[in-house]
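ok new one. same drill as before - structure tokens go in, u give me an amino acid for every spot. 184 of them this time. try not to just spam alanines like last time pls lmao
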């Protein structure tokens, strides 16, 4: 008898990842390679693959009308973002550091099953696929991403402010970041 490989999900069991609210998402490159560029001083300098990663991220709201892209940054080997899922009637907005948290219903756990369409997982899978496809087309990389991604449900305004600050300050701390293979 063959044993099936079962991956343990890091998602909150029973949580409806389509419900309106804010989500802090981190996606890492395969083997944590610095594929997207480098940090010089306190500035991220994106290479062509990093520019693709940033452009695809900025386009996410145009492909998912119920998502707003709040604060985000493309680092050399990972991407941080705040996705804000809105009610279907609110429409999408996009921008770096947009103050979308004001007036947005923040998340509280529910026990509803999560439908496939419109989930954070579908959005991240679409983003990762787009970056990988363009990277291959431009002969920049074959494999770009590690499997899966990390997310945290943002439940309060204070937490939203804290995550925004963390993302904005991420390039400043790169020299000491454990994700930086050249950290001092």
């Amino acid at each position: 008898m063959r044993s099936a490989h079962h991956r343990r999900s890091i998602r909150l069991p029973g949580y409806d990842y389509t419900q309106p609210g804010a989500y802090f998402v981190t996606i890492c490159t395969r083997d944590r390679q610095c594929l997207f560029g480098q940090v010089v001083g306190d500035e991220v300098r994106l290479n062509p693959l990093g520019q693709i990663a940033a452009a695809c991220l900025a386009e996410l709201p145009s492909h998912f009308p119920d998502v707003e892209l709040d604060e985000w940054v493309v680092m050399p080997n990972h991407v941080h973002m705040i996705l804000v899922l809105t009610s279907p009637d609110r429409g999408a907005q996009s921008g770096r550091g947009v103050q979308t948290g004001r007036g947005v219903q923040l998340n509280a756990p529910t026990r509803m099953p999560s439908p496939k369409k419109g989930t954070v997982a579908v959005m991240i899978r679409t983003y990762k696929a787009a970056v990988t496809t363009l990277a291959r087309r431009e002969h920049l990389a074959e494999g770009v991403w590690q499997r899966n991604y990390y997310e945290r449900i943002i439940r309060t305004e204070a937490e939203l402010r804290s995550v925004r600050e963390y993302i904005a300050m991420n390039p400043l701390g790169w020299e000491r970041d454990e994700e930086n293979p050249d950290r001092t």
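Strands lie at 21-28, 37-40, 43-46, 67-74, 78-85, 150-154. and btw The chain has one domain: 21-171.
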